[in-house]
Design a protein that fits this description.
alpha/beta, 18 helices, 10 strands
Length: about 475
């Protein structure tokens, strides 16, 4: 997508422009929004039976748009084939341009029946909900699971999955299919070959980076063109230092949340990586694929990423790389949360538009995807967990998948779940992301970065056009 010579300010301008373009289009949604979850174009429902609990019209066909990103599309195609055996033809469209392709259809009142709303062009779910553009998913969650007719779908899901689809009340507006583990991804082989230990404190991190630099290896890289990747380790780092309540305050848009001592310590630590030359040269100009490729080539030790990276970087990963997900390195013994703390949550959101012609079909395809057969197929294909509890039991797992599964197990209750990234997408991706990009590029001091983040958060808090959410 870009080169190391890309000017960051141009990138920010493009990101901002994309946001500005999205605003009037999303505002236009209100013109076609309905007050209920139905649509004038909705096909007649089929008869509900034991084998068709959602009452899918078998003659309706299904329009399914899937994001063609780190997880690929094969898992969706495989689930669609199962759907077709009982319910008719599926039109499957794969794209990386979710917003560009689908926003006109949402505005026009002819959306698909199921959307994998993911990627850099993800539509803002909070805005869609506020404009009554999403169908509520209780019919799916209360339907019997494919594997056990006596068990509801909701009772087969990992903890936190349903909560990730809620926005201020008990209603569920999206189903996050993948269960993503975020962390400091690294190569076990690189550490072993150099007799290096995984750092548990920040002093140990800096000492390791110093050793690596002497060998011509950088400590870190990241997706400079997509700086919202930085929080994959920064947010749990803040939580580890100061406790969950600091992240909750940030999510709640509380005054001075970004000025907490834990934020100050985390910003100063990350700034030190830049100041001491421990970040791979040219990183600010790299996109996610380019940064991952430099990492798999052994040019650096760590990259902040999610568990999709094993599949997304498969083409450039050496066979003996031994990819692993590490919990965030802490500050020191004063941290509120123990080593092993990480960010993990249900991700890869699927939505059923309120004005879909065949919403029952969209939910039925999701019900199929939530079977153990489809969930295991996903994990086998893309080396990542799903939100289906116990789906990988007994499976032979790849190094990255096994590592992220173990990291999640080791974390126990010490898992943080920031919501700013989906409650306030523009704030997280474009505004906070731009500040973090400046911080790690060495162009902004920690104090200035904290003030700027707080300024953006305060601006969002005062914006009456933005719906607000709070942790219970």
């Amino acid at each position: 997508m870009g080169s190391t010579d890309v000017n960051r300010r141009d990138l920010i301008k493009r990101a901002t422009a994309a946001g500005l373009i999205a605003v009037p289009a999303m505002s236009a949604l209100s013109a076609c929004a309905s007050s209920d979850s139905g649509s004038d174009n909705e096909v007649a429902k089929g008869q509900k039976t034991k084998d068709n609990p959602l009452g899918v019209n078998k003659d309706a066909g299904l329009d399914f748009v899937i994001f063609d990103g780190g997880f690929g599309t094969q898992y969706g195609k495989d689930a669609a084939e199962i759907y077709e055996k009982s319910y008719g033809k599926v039109k499957l469209t794969a794209t990386q341009k979710i917003r560009s392709v689908l926003q006109p259809r949402m505005v026009g009142g002819n959306p698909p029946d199921l959307i994998d709303n993911s990627g850099a062009e993800q539509m803002d779910a909070a805005t869609l909900i506020a404009k009554d553009q999403l169908a509520e998913l209780s019919p799916l969650l209360d339907a019997p699971s494919v594997d056990d007719p006596d068990t509801k779908v909701r009772d087969t899901l990992l903890p936190g999955t349903i909560e990730m689809g809620q926005y201020g009340d008990e209603k569920v507006w999206r189903l996050n299919y993948a269960y993503t583990v975020y962390g400091q991804w690294y190569s076990r082989k690189l550490l072993a070959d150099n007799d290096w230990e995984y750092p548990r404190t920040w002093d140990e991190m800096l000492a390791l980076c110093a050793k690596a630099k002497k060998k011509g290896i950088a400590g870190w890289t990241y997706a400079g063109q997509h700086p919202y990747y930085i929080p994959f380790t920064l947010y749990p780092f803040i939580g580890k230092i100061g406790g969950r309540e600091v992240l909750d305050a940030i999510d709640n848009l509380e005054p001075n949340a970004w000025k907490h001592d834990a934020v100050k310590s985390a910003f100063e630590a990350y700034h030190e990586l830049s100041a001491k030359g421990y970040i791979l040269r040219g990183t600010p100009g790299l996109d996610h694929i380019q940064s991952q490729t430099q990492w798999t080539k052994g040019k650096c030790i760590f990259i902040p990423n999610g568990s999709w990276v094993e599949n997304e970087a498969a083409d450039t990963t050496p066979a003996d790389f031994d990819m692993a997900c590490g919990a965030v390195t802490g500050l020191d013994d004063s941290d509120k949360m123990p080593f092993g703390t990480l960010w993990a949550q249900a991700g890869e959101p699927f939505i059923v538009p309120a004005q879909a012609k065949n919403p029952a079909g969209g939910m039925e395809l999701l019900r199929i995807m939530l079977s153990k057969k489809s969930a295991q197929n996903f994990s086998r294909l893309v080396k990542s967990l799903t939100c289906v509890a116990g789906a990988t039991d007994g499976m032979e797992m790849s190094p990255g998948l096994a590592s992220s599964s173990q990291a999640l197990k080791d974390a126990g209750d010490n898992v943080v779940n920031p919501r700013i990234f989906d409650w306030y997408q523009t704030l997280h991706k474009e505004q906070i992301g731009s500040v973090l990009a400046e911080l790690l590029a060495g162009r902004m001091k920690p104090a200035e970065a904290m003030n700027k983040c707080q300024e953006y958060a305060d601006r969002t808090a005062k914006d009456d056009s933005v719906r607000k959410y709070k942790h219970a």
